[in-house]
Amino acid sequence: MTNINFDLRAKDWDCDPSKVERARLVADAIRQKVHLTSGITAMEYGCGTGLLSFALQPWLGAITMADSSLGMLDVLRGKIALGGITNMSPLRLDLASDPLPELRFDTIYSLMTLHHIPDTRKVLKDFYALLNHPGILCISDLDSEDGSFHGPGFEGHHGFDRTGLTADLMAAGFGRVHFSTVYEMQKEVDGKRRNYPLFLMVAEKE
Fold this sequence. Notes:
The protein is α/β, with parallel strands linked by helices. Helix 5 packs across helix 6. The radius of gyration is 16 Å and the shape is globular.
């Protein structure tokens, strides 16, 4: 993963209303694009405190909540216990260095995670391997930007070109790749408000 310390940010993560709104809107978009049922097994990769999965939880079966940040997973466990939720299971996992878990899933989804992963081609192949036949991958992340979203020193990707990401998905084995714009984040950069579009990509493992 990249150089942002998510352990230190975990306790205050849910205090940002824009993050809560973003997760809710992405969850709504996933529900519009993918038929979800209580029989579907799912994994959220890069789950953080679970904002996206909590928004999807009533429409899914067993959900594996995977993240490399122990701080985020600690907060997540507290939320699961507080809510008495029985279909969510936290998992410490970093696909950049860990072996693939034995579990397989009907759908995998992520929100604002892919641009933190240096080797996106590898992780897309890992997602393909972790999906059942048929399976659905949903990725929501930044469109290509000029680097101002995170600012100097960020070691990840400055968003993604949709054509290039489609080619990487197809190379990993996916088909029927579809993009839509689902949200626009706003940040103040150099004293000016900037908009950063967020896409939802849905790809099928047939």
